[in-house]
Specification:
The structure holds two protein chains of two kinds. Chain A is α+β, with helices and mostly antiparallel strands. Helices cover about 15% and strands about 30% of the residues of chain A. Chain A has a single domain, classed as Lipocalin. Chain A has three helices and eleven strands. In chain A, the strands form two sheets. Chain A has a nine-stranded mixed β-barrel. Chain A is globular and about 55 Å long. Chain A starts with a helix and ends in a 7-residue tail after the last strand. The N terminus of chain A is likely disordered. Chain B is α+β, with helices and mostly antiparallel strands. Helix content of chain B is about 20%, strand content about 35%. Chain B has two helices and six strands. In chain B, strands 1-2-3-5-4 form a five-stranded mixed β-barrel. In chain B, about 45% of the residues are buried. The N terminus and C terminus of chain B are likely disordered. Classes of the chains: A alpha+beta, B alpha+beta. At the A-B interface, strand 1 and strand 11 of A face strand 1, strand 3 and helix 2 of B.
Chain lengths: ~250, ~140
């Protein structure tokens, strides 16, 4: 009985328990002791929740949502998703777009600049915990700590407007994402992402994405509304606007 | 929109683009299995490689997609303006393209995935200039 309680306690606390080790980047001096994540990183393989690995194990309710989506797609009722209208993917898919990211360290905070849809994430490494009742956002509320050479990021507070990457794969407000960032090789960043959701998933699932370093690249502007001719309507139809003004 | 800023010969201008394209092609395999970034390709007929020949009206170096507008002369002599979607300037710019890759008046042969709707539009796959140089857009995978 005692052993059982111990197991539950550890399991429940696992995402929160910071197994801190080594420098935490709390001062500029300590930031210099962290692994060198500088430069731009572009996904080379993996691809977040969609790329390889065991498929997510959905609860009956969320499996039904997926089946419903697939059937509607088959019937031609859904041709595209919100990103066609320039709505950002949100987590986790925003991390594996075919555009680079940049990871910045400042005392107590890691900032990830994401070129796609001009997004950013801030990861508080100053020891704070998540708000008790976080606002629900596309990229969530992130806290992080270092376990030696690995940055561990815990993120909660997601709007259910987003999917797990595949539009039909939905999640609840209780989704939690844990990411482990590590230099697998000098110029290869590996991010192991574990997604759990007590309402949508019967067990957590894990995906690994790899990023290549491009020290000579710069982030470029990405204003999706600049000339977005793709669209998807409320009834799921999509198309391209070919209107043109002769100069 | 800014126009040509250099008077380098076309062939020289294209050399770096072609080089970039070759490097990019090697990376293509890595992209094809990945999710589309911005939109699905359900509106395009990806089974059909349509050849078009025309004169560039304008090249829009814009997000989320570049757009190449060309005037195509039809068999009966009439002209149709085609709008061809390409990858983003961010993606292509890192692979040797510039805002001056196409300029008004350039004569190009292009291969496109046409729109299923029959409207004069599609996804640009590759373009060949009069001097034979070619630029490749990497199809529709990644960056879309």
């Amino acid at each position: 009985m005692l052993r059982h309680v111990w197991f539950i306690a550890v399991f429940a606390a696992a995402p929160l328990a910071a197994q801190k080790s080594g420098p935490q980047g709390d001062t500029w001096e300590n930031i210099a002791k962290l692994p060198d994540f500088s430069g731009l990183w572009e996904v080379t393989r993996g691809g977040g929740p969609r790329g390889g690995g065991e498929p997510p194990a959905f609860t009956p309710e969320y499996a039904a949502k997926l089946a419903e989506f697939q059937a509607a797609t088959q019937r031609g009722e859904i041709e595209d998703g919100p990103t066609a209208n320039c709505v950002p993917n949100g987590m986790p898919a925003i991390m594996t777009q075919p555009y680079p990211i940049e990871i910045l360290f400042t005392p107590g905070k890691v900032t990830i600049l994401i070129e796609a849809y001009a997004q950013w994430r801030q990861i508080f490494t100053d020891g704070r915990v998540h708000p008790e009742d976080p606002d629900l956002t596309f990229n969530g509320h992130s806290t992080g700590h270092w376990e030696g050479d690995t940055l561990v990021v815990d993120t909660v507070g997601f709007t259910t407007d987003t999917s797990l990457g595949n539009q039909g794969q939905r999640h609840s407000e209780k989704m939690r994402i844990v990411e482990r960032f590590r230099l697998a090789e000098p110029d290869r960043l590996e991010v192991v992402t574990t997604i759990s959701d007590p309402e949508a998933l019967t067990k957590p699932f894990t995906r690994t994405a790899a990023y290549g370093r491009h020290r000579d690249w710069n982030l470029a502007e990405y204003v999706c509304q600049q000339n977005n001719r793709n669209f998807t309507t409320d009834d799921g139809k999509s198309g391209i606007d070919l209107s043109f003004e002769e100069k | 929109m800014m126009r040509r800023t250099t008077n380098r010969p076309r062939s020289l201008r294209h050399f770096t683009m072609v080089l970039g394209s070759v490097v990019g092609m090697l990376a293509l395999a890595a992209w094809t299995s990945r999710a589309e970034a911005h939109h699905s390709f359900s509106v395009f007929d990806m089974q059909t490689n349509k050849d078009l020949e025309g004169e560039v009206i304008e090249f829009q170096w814009t997000n989320p997609h570049t757009f190449l507008w060309i005037n195509v002369t039809n068999a009966d002599g009439s002209k149709t303006r085609w709008g061809l979607e390409g990858m983003s300037p961010n993606f292509l710019g890192r692979r040797g393209w510039t805002k001056n890759t196409f300029e008004p008046g350039d004569k190009v042969k292009v291969v496109v995935w046409p729109l299923k709707s029959g409207e004069p539009g599609g996804t640009l796959q590759k373009a060949t200039f009069e001097d034979g140089t070619q630029v490749v857009n990497f199809g529709g995978s990644g960056g879309g």
